[in-house]
Amino acid sequence: MAKSTRNFICQSCGTTTTKWSGKCDGCGEWNSIAEEVVEASAPKGLGNGRKGKTLPLTSLKSESAKKLPRHICGITEYDRVTGGGMVPGSAILIGGDPGIGKSTLLLQVLCALSKKNTGCVYISGEEAPDQVRLRAERLGLSDCPVQLAAATSVRDIIASMEDAANRMDVVVIDSIQTMYVDTVESAPGTVTQVRASAQEIIRSAKRHGITVLFVGHVTKDGQIAGPRVLEHLVDTVLYFEGDRSHQFRILRAVKNRFGPTDEIGVFEMAGAGLMPVENPSALFLAQRQHNVPGSAVLAGLEGSRPVLVEVQALVAPSPNGGSPRRAVIGWDSGRLAMVLAVLEARCGVRLSDSDIFLNIAGGIRISEPAADLAVAAALVSAANGEAISNGTVFFGEVGLGGEVRQVPQPDIRMKEAARLGFDRAVLPRRKQDKDKKAANEVIKVTEIKQLQDLVDMFAPVRGARAMA
After folding, report:
1. For residue 397, what is the domain's CATH number?
2. Per-residue pLDDT for 277 more than 60?
3. Per-residue pLDDT tens for 101-144?
4. What is the value of pTM for the model shown?
5. CB 446 within 8 Å of CB 393
6. Is residue 63 in a domain?
7. Do both 272 and 192 map to the same domain?
8. Domain limits for position 377
9. Which one, of 231, 158, 254, 165, lies nearest residue 197 by Cα?
């Protein structure tokens, strides 16, 4: 019989090595590798032992298939991100920075579901039930029929789920890093324990049709700590984003087997907890200052939702000579370097000797390539000291050849801009006549083919007339 072996596993990404090192080769983290016991497996397959049972096969098309209703909590932004509610028997993983509001949101979700006669249980491995009650009282939810428990043993949790399966519909595990399986020698929070704990809980939950929500801690890079493997085990992965200095929180779906991915829900942190924001574009632009150089509005698209955000740029002389600063908040710093290189190489806009500061206002993070054109407009506006018209929005992808490429669903972006009072859109040149006709009915369109066309709008004479 094979013996158990000891390997060294990175607690940030799960990379396995045969010896310890200070830095993980997989993710680059320092001091994240720990020694763990790896259970032995059968060395020569199944052999000639007992025969396995034949699997019961069912047809893909079944007239008797029962359609399970989703658990809809009524918190509109949460239901939107989960694809219209949580599917019974599904496993959902929610990650986010400490103190961002994960436990608060899940407590609100459970309380909303419990008022609809849904059996809800909150199992905390970090807090005592009295501490959870204090949070519920602060949120005004102390009268909700949610059951509480403090446990870290997976064996006890599964026994409770099986004993009360007919009275238990939704279970929150806060957090998966505190759970342990008593047959695994590793300490709680290690990759081996996290994987084993999640597998056992998910197996029991799917057998009894219970929806389980895992809270996952994140590393300093924003990834869910330890269990990158968990993302393959669960049905839905949600990230809770936002700067704690801002009141806005973004719930983003990066994986969803039962709904769209890259969907976002916007919340505002208030005294009564996390309040859903029905019109995030108006909220993100509420404090925007007009007639300020370096400010451009992006008509972005997050999942199926159009979102208008302000892109702020500041170009200043560098006091460091040959090593100017590049500070980016809310966008990819590598993509900023690409846009700067295209502006200088293809359009003659010299920015390599200046300090560049770029910010996506409101605490939201933008990842789609359609932000390239808005970033370029903000940079050119800041460099020339000319403000962009208050009623103009930008969207488009910039290529290395200086071309401006088309992006998906321009009509939805422009309709959202028109709804918020914008009257002009600068976007890539399109080919479909029907799209042009529909767009002209909503908002005035300026189509550009090259990034140089955007730079020409800021020329000393023509720029003032073009952007007015």
Report:
1. 3.30.230.10
2. yes
3. 899 999 999 999 999 999 999 999 989 999 999 999 999 999 99
4. 0.80
5. no
6. no
7. yes
8. 283-466
9. 158
3-state secondary structure of 105: helix
Residue 106 falls inside a structural domain = yes
The pairing of strands 354-360 and 305-317 is: antiparallel
Shared domain check, 168 and 267: yes
Instruction: Answer whether 385's CB lies under 8 Å from 345's CB.
Output: no
- Alpha-carbon distances of 221 from 217, 224, 255, 409, rounded to whole Å: 11, 9, 19, 31
For residues 323 and 344, give the distance between their C-alpha atoms in angstroms, rounded to a whole number: 17
What secondary structure letter does DSSP report for 19? S
244-250: long-range contacts, CB 8 A cutoff, minimum separation 24: 244/97, 244/99, 244/100, 245/363, 246/362, 246/363, 248/277, 248/280, 248/283, 248/284, 248/362, 248/363, 248/364, 249/100, 249/101, 249/274, 250/363, 250/364, 250/365
- In the beta sheet, which residues pair with residue 211? 170
> What is the percentage of the chain residues whose pLDDT exceeds 90?
55
Residue 352: alpha-carbon gap to chain centroid = 32
Angle at alpha carbon of residue 162, lines to 172 and 179, rounded to 5°? 45
337, 391: one domain: yes
Query: What's the pLDDT at 100?
Result: 87
The 8-class DSSP code of residue 130 comes to H
Q: What contacts 19, CB < 8 A, 6 or more positions away? A: 8
C-alpha 196/C-alpha 92 separation (Å) is 16
Nearest Cα to 303, choosing from 325, 322, 280?
A: 280
Average pLDDT for 417-445: 77
Burial of 166 (C-beta count, 10 Å sphere; 0-12/13-18/19+): exposed
Specify the pLDDT at position 1.
44
Residues 264 and 411 in one domain: no
Please report the pLDDT score of residue 462 as a whole number. 36
Quote the tokens at residue 390: 């208050």
How does DSSP assign 157-194, residue by residue? HHHHHHHTGGG--EEEEE-GGG-B-TT--SPTTSHHHH
Cis amide bond preceding 204, omega within 30: no
Q: What is the model's pLDDT at position 198?
A: 93
The Cα 82–Cα 192 span in angstroms is 28
Are 148 and 120 members of one domain?
yes
